[in-house]
Amino acid sequence: MTLDLGIKALNLFAPVPSSGTLSLAAPAGHGALVLLLEVIHRSRGRLVALGAASRTRDPREFDSMFNDSVDDDRRETSLLDGDASAEARWAEVERALERAAEVHTQTGDQVFCVLDVEGLTGVPPRPLYAGEGVLVVLFEALLTREEEDESWHALADTTWRFSSEMARAGSYPALDPARSHARGDHAQDAARARWSEGGAWARLLEMYLTQPFEVAEYFTGLPGNHVPAETARSDLEALMRGDADHLEPEALRFKGPLSDAV
Length: 262
What we know:
With 262 residues, the protein is an alpha/beta fold. It has one domain (2-192): 3-Layer(aba) Sandwich (Rossmann fold). It is built from 10 helices and 9 strands. The protein has a 7-stranded mixed beta sheet. The chain has a two-stranded antiparallel ribbon with strand order 1-2. Strand 4 (46-51), helix 3 and strand 5 form a beta-alpha-beta unit. The longest helix is centred in the middle third of the chain and has 22 residues, at 86-107. The protein starts with a strand and ends in a 21-residue tail after the last helix. The mean pLDDT is 90.
């Protein structure tokens, strides 16, 4: 089952599953964490997060990544022991997965089990699956390099990758349509191919996919909006037909459905 959270870029190119694994990797400044927080917020989800001690040894600093968007009583955060063996770290991951499943069983809420893969090495001892209602998020903040660890990418049912060009242009969420996908979902391959060609049409699509978020409203001054998946698919078909070719791309920036700009 996928979650229709009204986020155009995700509904079209990388639908959010309610369970399984999501691979999320991006350099700083690409809005990856904001997108994840918006997904948690819109789903009224709960968070179980395990951070990497190689990034920070202060549990409060790790928790602060989430505290503005996920209420105290809806999140649990902890850090991997930076001095522990690889085997011991995987045992901590196992406990986090078990805790996430327990939270879902107790509350019935959607749960996001976020694992900072920076602190993990080697191959997981078992598939990173925590049961129905729990989405395991393999979060990789690319602070010191540009490329993600492909071994983690291969584990994922759904992949989010981000475009540096879109981020520099302020086109958020800067989700890259060509590199983001759900396993086995080829519904938008024609749009991906056309996007990859660049040009005026790709710019129109880029602007259509921009969207203000509720968790960022304090900073942007723009209220978040929702576009149902069915509407987004209909809008993309219209874009593919050329129905919006007469519009200036900026007319679509941070709008909702295509009808808001036409």
